[in-house]
Amino acid sequence: MRKKRRWVPVLFLAGIIGITGFLYMQSRSPVDTGIPASPLYSQALEFEAKREAIKQNLEVKGKSSYVNEANVYAPFAGTIGSWAVKEGGQISEGALLFEMETEELRKQLAIKQANVEKMQTEQKIQQAVQSLAPDDSRPGGGTMGEQEAFSRFTNKEKDKLQQKVDSINLNLVQTEIQELNRLLSEARYASTASGIFLFAENKEPKKVTEQELLGKIVDLTKLKMVATVGEYEVFQITEGLPVDIKIDALPNDKLKGTVTEVSKFAKSGSDGISKFDVTIELEPHDRLIAGLGLTGTILIDEKDDALVVPTLTVQRDDDDYFVYVLNEGVPEKRIVRIGMETAEQTEIIEGLQEGETVVLQ
Known about the structure:
Helices cover 27% and strands 40% of the residues. The protein contains 3 helices and 21 strands. The strands form 3 sheets. Strands 2-11-15-13-12-16 form a 6-stranded antiparallel β-barrel. It has a 4-stranded antiparallel sheet with strand order 3-10-8-5, with no helix packed on it. Strands 7-6-4-9 form a 4-stranded antiparallel sheet. Mean pLDDT is 84; it is low at 20-41.
């Protein structure tokens, strides 16, 4: 009797657990209402194909620089005696920029000119001496020994050789004189352009070497932006395209630009990918100076009345583009031909009609 009484609570507890589990499973089972479940596409995003303006833009980054820059180099090694312009000063083309000291050049010139006069005088004397020497070839000149004849012959040859050497030396000195005169004419350095003069590294340098960069003359009214693009973008850009420019340091200041040059030669970037320079001429702006970071938006193409759908609804299968079009409540795959393409919109040229609904599966 005792064993039977022990099993009663256990059986009772097991029955309660079984009934509870059955009721829970019943509550989790779907109720058949006779209404079919909604298809999966009913939860997809739907978009209407419509006609509107579309613009294809390309964003580029670069820095501002001056369009017209004329470098100024020292004409020869020496000392600059005086500067006619200060840092940032305005200068006109043809105006004096600086003047080199010429005292040492003039001393060299005087010495060489004196040497030329001396050499020319010596040549005249030599010619006179030779004209007074007896002519051994004339009749009645008497006979001479073999040794004396040989001596006279060698002396004449030496004289001819010396004349050639003297002539060469004279030409060399005259060439040096011409070079000194050229340097003297360049000692007063005239500006080759109009604009603002900016020194290179040293302000108003004194001792300079030949062709040392002293500074540059820039036209502040004309600036450009130089940007780099990849090999896929370069074929989309042509000269004359309009550009909207933003100054990175001055986000509220905007200006216009125009593509003036697209490089035909690639340069390798740090990542090994080919890059191409694109030059954009900028309109004048009061706060625009060289060296500023700029962001440009190039208008590649635009259409006022294009049939467009969101780009995210256009998919690609091998060489074909396709969209899912809602047909009597059911999406169907349809091949389309696209035109302009942006991050937000894609133009549909064939395969879709205005007003049709595309869905994002």
